[in-house]
Amino acid sequence: MSTTTTAVLVPLLPFLGALAGFLTGRRAPGLVRPLAVLPTLAAAVLAIVVACRQGGGAALDAATRLTPTGSVPVDLALHLDGFAVLVAVLVGVVATCVQLYSTAYLRDDPRYPSYAALVSLFTAAMLLVVYTGDLMVLLVGWEIMGICSYFLVGHYWETEAARSASLKAFLVTKLGDVPFLIGIFALAADAGTFRINGIIATAASGGLDHPTLVALLLLAGVAGKSAQFPLHTWLPDAMAGPTPVSALIHAATMVAAGVYLVARLLPVFAASAAALVVLAVMAAVTMVGSALAALAQDDIKRVLAYSTVGQLGYMTGALAVGDRGAAVFHLISHGAFKALLFLGAGVIIHAAGTNSLAAMARMNGLAKRIPDAYWTMTVALLALAAIPPFSGFFSKEAVLGAAEHAATGGAHGIPAAAAGPAGWTVLIAGLVTAVLTAGYATRLWLLAFHGKGAEAPDHGREPVAMNGVLWVLFVPTAALGLAAWKLPDWFDGRSLTPGLTTSVLSTGCAVAGALVMYAAWRRTAALAARTPLGAVAADPDASPAVSEIEAIDSHEPVYGTIAAAPDPGDPGRLILGPLHRHAATGFHLDAVYSTLFVRPTRAAARLARFLDREVVDAYVRGAATAPGLLGAAVRRAQTGNVQTYLGALLAGSVVLAVTAVLVATGA
């Protein structure tokens, strides 16, 4: 079987699995799990085969005309280079792990058949985005992921949080998709093609007529899909969905799509110095703001969600300084350890009966109850904090090294006017974020695994499907950094190995952040012991999904908010001080959007309703009322009395006769 045929099967198999799952899920429950796991597993294996055959060599392109349009044609195109094949392996492996994990996590969920089919469709859509060589076909996968995220985030639709989160995710991402679609059409108009290779060639030769406008329009879609400031607010709220969905969205699909798109179209963005500076500023604000917000969250999944936003900021920062190899390296590395962190968080929530770090801080022995999650998550948090020798250290160093080169004038392929400002912006923000990242990673580890108080409930060992997946993801989390010496052959040839200056600075920042958080925890631990606090699941022996639903439902009624907790024993509260209440709400961006957009939209809707009911409908009602009144008057004359009719006829005749006489005499 040729490499092209094998690559076509990679997105096709999960799609067929999804189609079969939708058609037979309820009729043949015994087929649901095989239809969920086997096509995705086969796609992952084939993606690995494609990657091995491609081997970082020359890009492989194949295309067929999908449909004539009368102007710019649309092609069903395939583009396989080092970036595409490695990202596809990430998507396939993570999706397979999520499907396996879900067989145990949602084992008693009556909606599991539709859930599994949607996950398969989600996977197929992302693989289509990764492999396609045509922007219109990419847009199809892009939008399918948006629809799937709406249904998957709202899977627990019985809860208000899930319903609101799914709608918010859909609307915010669509807000970015509108200018994104305009940008695609503008790009195709300038380049004369939707084929990505043709667009890149046009951009490299300076043939784009409006490079800044096109780049900024595309960035709007990227900001929405990859949860970058200012369209990142949907991602923390999306934690109301099932934990495996969170792992899939954060690690391998949806949010990775925007970063991957910019990496594929980097020459388009590099054609505009202004666009690169905007991208750098967006990345810097996203990194620092999300890291501060993560320090204030009480929900363990919201901490990880804000962490994802910040790590995506590192990736967009690398793209802003023109190094897509560093960006994709961090995308792959982050995908491995973030999937592990989210799936491990699902184990913790089930074992503790709560998603609240404040409640976990008052439990003793949770780490002993779930040793698999404890050890694998410890390594994943070290990778997140970029502590050597774990994968996150090498990939984050590649980003900071690229920023340093740009700041000192060593960047290639981007305008000199953008290199300095973008490089310094990304480098400084990256180092500040390194301190904060190590801080919130340490806080999560201390509060979740080293609480003091009553003994944590013992539910026995978690299912093998859940624990086994954690160890599968542990391998790339611990060892993927060794690929830093090999990946340049697959990417653009630029070195991804750590530099001395940035390595010392970032590692020092990470160690400092961890030590400060540990010192703060030592001071506040006594307060936690003296202050009873916590919301736990009402049914601790239920399946993991039920425990999660109960944890989500109980958090806001107990603490007054879905995000934070009034916990005097929280070391994050001590460090942030008066900034804590602002960070807990994401710096009130939702309130700002409500004031600027939601309230005016609702006011306009109320005005339209008033005009429709009281003005437009008034004319309609008037047109109906006048004939009604006339009919009522005529109806009164219809008495059925013959004498009355004869009298009226005689009176009318007299009136007509008198009128005729008067007219005839000229009176």
From TrEMBL:
Protein keywords: Membrane, Transmembrane, Transmembrane helix
NCBIfam families associated with the record: NDH_I_L
Subcellular locations according to the entry: Endomembrane system; Membrane
Lineage of the species this protein comes from: Bacteria, Bacillati, Actinomycetota, Actinomycetes, Kitasatosporales
InterPro entries hit by this protein: NADHpl_OxRdtase_5_subgr, ND/Mrp_TM, NU5C-like, Proton_antipo_N
Domain NADH-Ubiquinone oxidoreductase (complex I) chain 5 N-terminal: 68-115
Record's keyword annotation contains Membrane: yes
Domain of life: Bacteria
Species in which this protein is naturally found: Streptomyces ehimensis
Name of this chain's protein: NADH-quinone oxidoreductase subunit L
Transmembrane segments: 6-23, 35-56, 76-100, 112-131, 137-157, 169-188, 200-224, 245-263, 269-296, 303-321, 327-352, 373-394, 424-447, 468-487, 499-521, 645-664
Membrane topology summary: Multi-pass membrane protein
Boundaries of every NADH:quinone oxidoreductase/Mrp antiporter transmembrane domain copy: 133-403
